[in-house]
Design a protein that fits this description.
Blueprint: H1 3-9, H2 11-26, H3 52-69, H4 75-88, H5 94-99, H6 106-119, H7 125-131, H8 137-150, H9 156-161, H10 168-187, H11 191-195
């Protein structure tokens, strides 16, 4: 059926609908009440703020747990704990990390060397210097880099010896470490010590 036929069939109903539609279109916009959203009270679900004491206690617990994990039987745990302690940089981890310099797993040993370089505590200098004579060139390379991070003058002579190492990466790390130590002494006014460096620093 056509639209005209529908109009004839239901004239009153159609007229009523058309009048309502026109009325809605002509109604001013301001007459339509605005939608008001209910206010949400967030105070009930808000998390309580932690005090500085609470945060400090939590950090102490994390540190203690990581140091304990350095003794774990799983080398993955010892390695990950070492890297984490290097990021935290708490000097209380130095002695436990020094113990791991003799770990049987190379990845754990590397993580401990790296962490000691990050912490920059001078207690690690002598143990790291001892590693410069290690039979594994990877160990010598990592130890040289860590000593460059600590920048202790005691490492100068042992690092100088490594400038003749048979492995290029070891020589490069030794030279870079010596450069860092030299710059530190120059900045501190230690010109006499800095003058003793006979390496081709850039």
């Amino acid at each position: 059926q056509s639209a005209q036929a529908e109009k004839k069939a239901y004239p009153e109903q159609l007229q009523t609908l058309e009048e309502k539609e026109v009325a809605l279109q002509d109604k001013p916009q301001q007459d339509i009440p605005p939608v008001v959203l209910p206010k949400v009270d967030n105070t009930q679900g808000a998390l309580p703020q932690r005090s500085e004491n609470d945060i400090q206690q939590e950090q102490e617990m994390v540190l203690a747990k990581l140091i304990q994990q350095l003794k774990d039987k799983d080398w993955n745990v010892r390695r990950d704990a070492s890297f984490a302690l290097g990021e935290i940089k708490d000097t209380r981890a130095v002695e436990p990390l020094i113990v791991l310099l003799k770990d049987e797993d190379w990845s754990v040993q590397k993580a401990a060397i790296s962490a000691l370089g990050e912490i920059k505590d001078t207690r690690a200098v002598e143990p790291l210097i001892a590693l410069l004579k290690d039979g594994d060139w990877n160990v010598r390379r990592e130890a040289a880099f860590a000593l460059g991070e600590i920048k202790d003058i005691r490492a100068v002579e042992p690092l100088t010896v490594l400038l003749k190492d048979g492995y290029r990466d070891v020589r490069m790390n030794a030279e870079e470490a010596l450069g860092k130590i030299k710059v530190k002494n120059e900045n501190n006014g230690n010109e006499k010590i800095a003058a003793k460096f006979n390496t081709p620093f850039k």
